[in-house]
Amino acid sequence: MYKKTLLPCALAFACTISSGVALAAVEAGTVLSAANIDKLYDDTFEGHKIKDLLTEKVEWRIRNSGYEMKLVNSKPVKLGDAWYERSQQNVGNVTINEAGGRIDGWVGGAPFPNIDMNDPEAAKKVVWNWYYGNPRGDVMNVPNVAYVLIDGNSGIERVQNWKFVRYTMKGRLTGEQVEGDGSELSRTIFVATAPRDIKGLGTFSIRKDNEQVEDVWAYIRAVRRTRRLSGGAWMDPVGGTDQLQDDIEIFNANPTWYKEYRMVGKRHILTAAHGINSAWNPNGANEAESFPTLDLSKAPYWNFNQDQYEPREVYVIEAIPPEEHPYSKKVLYIDTEYPRVHMGEAYDKKGDFWKMFQFHSYPNIAEDGSVDVRTTSGATIDFKRNHATVFFPDTETWSTNTPGLTADDVSLSVLRATAR
Predict the structure, then answer these.
(1) Mean pLDDT for the chain?
(2) pTM for the structure as a whole
(3) How many C-beta atoms lie closer than 10 Å to residue 157's C-beta?
(4) Range of the domain at 60
(5) Residue 354 falls within a domain, yes or no?
């Protein structure tokens, strides 16, 4: 349930009574690791047993893959007043239009701010809240993102720089609520800016507010031209990385493109909802200075061991993609207080664990005074390849609701100009 006043998990009991025995409370600042996980396993943090805060795959990584988690007290995440007001306006006024691939009656914010766990469509509604809820601002302008390709045995292979701009066309909280004819939900440019051998690779996409797949154009450097991609591009790999287009922000599909959603339940997990927002130093003298939240001292080199993790309540949802999708399912861990996918898992066609996704973030006061949720870092880890794609937005150059930036600045012609 999305409310304007949120109570942090830090107000939970400092200890728990189980079978008449008081369990020890773990202190904030404790670093959970393979060396102490068994000792702390049944102890509590903010009223939750450590073992209950760990998903199966996170526990496996701690025990076997060098992952460490520094525990910090949880804090509330409060979005802007306009976001909550629009969300409440949706109550009783929105419906899922499956055939049309959209929500009818939506005016911005979360379409379904009050989730009833007994509702057979609860899982689907949570995913629609993520898709439409958009706590990232009407314009998400990130001119410099470091993509770090990491081999689990040898470390960093190369670093790429990319530009990402997403312009919301519908459900806007600033200016006009709808721009254009109402058929577009957003426009996105995603283009490589360095090194020279990939500079110009990129895409321009228009996400429709209907059942149609995205219109996507790619810039081809060899012929200095753009070409339109097939309708299945949303399931395709992002060149040279471990991500699919559908893995951007963990889940990047119109909810109607997936076959089914299953609500597993609600639980608390450890996640970096108030992550360190200086996770990348573009002027670092070496790799350790450039990426201070990564543990580059030991394999597999992609663990965010220097970040900070707090308990957050999440919905656990299984998302079943179409048959032609590379995955058999995704498991999504979506915050119950605001639309944010903190973590995800992908499984292959045999049902075996394949990839893990994690996104770290922090609530930011934007340039216009509104609150937006910004990603500090993220990872797509392919455990079959023993390889990961880790990325770090430059939070110093990131701007939200950028003054003067219009829909015309996120277009095919701009992709061409940027790529060249």
Answers:
(1) 92
(2) 0.93
(3) 10
(4) 9-71
(5) no
